[in-house]
C-alpha cells in the first residue's frame, strides 16, 4: 500500500467514524431528504426565474421598453415618459429607444411607499422637479466604462460639500427612469409581483441586477456596462469568446460554438481536478515529511528553526499555482465571487473523490455524476451569460452535497462497517473483479 493512500484511508475511516458518532442513521437520512428538498426547490426556482426573465418566448425581457418614449420627430419632439435628466433636474428630450441617444441611463426601483422630494431647477424657471428620496436600488447603464468613472467622481463631489466639481455632466446625455417595484417587469411566472414571499426574496436575496441586465440586453444588445450605485459594482455586459448572437447567424457557427463550449467544459473539469489532486497530494506529502523530521529533531534536541523555514519556503510554491488558477477563472467567468465558488465546489468534489470514494459502486457512479453537475452548470452559464448563474450554482452545489451524503450513507459506511474497506484492502475492485 502506498503511503499517501494509507493516509487518505485513515482520514476516511476517522471521518466516517466521527459521522456515525455524531449522527445516527435516521438523522443522516433526514439530512439527505432535507438536501434533496432544498435542491429540488432551487432547481424549480431556477427554471421559474429563467422562464420569467431570461427566456424570450415567455419572459419579460423586453418589459423595460414600456418606460421609454417613442422617438421624437423633428416637428414635435416628445419627452421620455417617466424619465428625468440626471444632470440638472429637467426632463430630457433625447430619444430613449435609440441606444446612441443617451450614454448614461439610470434606473431606480421605487417601492410602493416611497418618499419623494422636490428640487428647484437651477435656472429658477419652471416647476420644481420631483425625485425619489434616498434610493437604495439605483442602477446605471453606460455605453463606455469611462462614463461610470465620471459619474463616480461627480457623485463624490456632490457628497463632499467642501469640494467643487471640476466638470459637469450637462453635456452627457443622462436619463433617469423610475420603475415601480410593483411593475409587471418583475412578475414571476405563475406567482406575480405582489406575492409577499417573492417580493422579500427579490429585494433581500436575489436583487434586481440580473433582471435589469436581461432587459437592457434585449433593448441595446450585449454591450455596455452595468453599475450598481449602492455597492459600486461594475458588470461588463460585453460577450466574451462565447457569443450566441454571432453563432445564430449560421448553422456552422452554431455548431462551432457548441463544440467550443463542450471542449471548454471538459478542459476545465480535468485541469481543475488534476490541479486540486496535485495540491492535495503534495501538501500531504510535505506535511508527513515535516512531521517525521520534526519528531526526529525534537528527540535529538536539534534546532528546528531551519526546518520550519525550509518547509515554509517549499510551501510557497503552491501560491503561484493557486493564484494563477484563480486569475484564470476570474477572466473566464468575469465574476470573482462565482469563480471562487466554482473552485471551492471543485475542491470539495475532488477531495471527496480522493479520500472517500472507495466502494465499487462509488467508484463507478460518483465521477460521472460529479462531471454531469459541473457540465450542466457550465452549459447554462455559457448559453445564457445574463442568466441566474448563482441560483443554478446553488442548486448544483446542493446536489453535490446530496451526492456526498448519499454515497456515504449507502455505500461507504456499510462497506467500512462490513470490513469490505480496511487497511489491507483500501479500495474495492471494479466490476468483474473478484474480491
Automatic annotation (TrEMBL):
GO biological process terms on file: positive regulation of ERAD pathway; response to endoplasmic reticulum stress
Membrane-traversing stretches: 33-53, 261-281, 302-330, 336-357, 364-382, 388-408
GO cellular component, as recorded: endoplasmic reticulum
Lineage: superkingdom: Eukaryota
Biased segments, Polar residues type: 83-97
Disordered as annotated region, ranges: 74-97
Keywords, sorted A to Z: Membrane, Transmembrane, Transmembrane helix
PANTHER family, sorted: MEMBRALIN (PTHR21650:SF4), MEMBRALIN/KINETOCHORE PROTEIN NUF2 (PTHR21650)
Protein name: Uncharacterized protein
Species of origin: Globisporangium ultimum (strain ATCC 200006 / CBS 805.95 / DAOM BR144)
Amino acid at each position: 500500500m502506498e503511503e499517501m493512500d494509507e493516509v487518505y484511508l485513515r482520514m476516511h475511516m476517522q471521518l466516517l467514524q466521527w459521522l456515525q458518532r455524531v449522527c445516527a442513521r435516521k438523522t443522516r437520512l433526514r439530512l439527505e431528504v432535507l438536501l434533496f428538498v432544498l435542491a429540488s426547490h432551487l432547481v424549480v426556482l431556477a427554471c421559474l426565474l429563467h422562464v420569467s426573465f431570461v427566456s424570450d418566448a415567455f419572459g419579460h425581457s423586453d418589459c423595460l421598453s414600456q418606460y421609454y418614449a417613442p422617438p421624437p420627430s423633428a416637428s414635435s419632439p416628445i419627452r421620455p415618459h417617466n424619465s428625468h435628466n440626471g444632470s440638472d433636474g429637467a426632463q430630457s428630450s433625447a430619444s430613449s429607444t435609440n441606444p446612441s441617444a443617451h450614454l448614461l441611463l439610470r434606473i431606480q426601483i421605487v417601492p410602493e411607499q416611497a418618499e419623494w422630494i422636490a428640487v428647484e431647477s437651477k435656472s429658477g424657471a419652471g416647476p420644481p422637479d420631483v425625485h425619489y428620496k434616498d434610493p437604495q436600488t439605483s442602477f446605471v447603464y453606460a455605453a463606455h466604462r469611462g462614463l461610470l468613472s465620471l459619474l463616480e467622481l461627480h457623485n463624490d463631489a456632490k457628497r463632499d460639500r467642501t469640494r467643487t466639481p471640476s466638470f459637469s455632466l450637462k453635456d452627457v446625455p443622462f436619463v433617469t427612469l423610475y420603475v415601480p417595484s410593483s411593475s409587471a417587469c418583475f412578475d414571476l411566472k405563475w406567482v406575480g409581483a405582489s406575492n409577499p414571499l417573492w417580493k422579500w426574496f427579490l429585494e433581500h436575496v436575489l436583487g434586481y441586477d440580473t433582471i435589469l441586465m436581461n432587459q437592457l440586453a434585449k433593448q441595446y444588445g450585449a454591450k455596455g456596462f452595468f453599475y450598481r450605485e449602492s455597492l459600486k459594482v461594475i458588470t461588463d455586459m460585453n460577450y466574451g469568446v462565447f457569443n450566441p448572437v454571432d453563432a445564430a447567424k449560421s448553422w456552422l457557427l452554431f455548431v462551432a460554438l457548441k463544440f467550443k463550449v463542450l471542449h471548454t467544459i471538459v478542459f476545465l473539469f480535468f485541469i481543475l481536478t488534476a490541479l486540486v489532486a496535485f495540491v492535495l497530494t503534495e501538501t500531504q506529502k510535505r506535511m508527513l515529511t515535516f512531521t517525521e523530521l520534526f519528531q526526529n529533531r525534537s528527540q535529538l534536541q536539534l534546532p528546528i528553526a531551519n526546518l520550519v523555514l525550509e518547509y515554509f519556503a517549499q510551501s510557497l510554491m503552491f501560491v503561484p499555482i493557486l493564484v494563477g488558477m484563480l486569475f484564470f477563472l476570474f477572466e473566464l467567468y468575469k465574476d470573482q465571487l462565482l469563480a471562487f465558488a466554482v473552485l471551492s465546489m471543485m475542491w470539495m468534489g475532488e477531495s471527496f473523490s480522493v479520500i472517500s470514494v472507495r466502494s465499487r459502486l462509488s467508484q463507478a457512479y460518483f465521477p460521472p455524476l460529479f462531471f454531469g453537475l459541473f457540465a450542466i452548470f457550465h452549459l447554462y452559464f455559457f448559453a445564457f451569460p445574463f442568466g441566474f448563474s448563482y441560483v443554478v450554482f446553488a442548486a448544483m452545489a446542493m446536489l453535490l452535497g446530496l451526492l456526498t451524503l448519499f454515497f456515504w450513507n449507502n455505500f461507504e459506511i456499510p462497506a467500512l462497517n462490513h470490513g469490505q474497506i480496511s487497511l489491507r484492502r483500501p479500495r474495492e475492485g471494479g466490476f468483474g473483479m473478484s474480491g
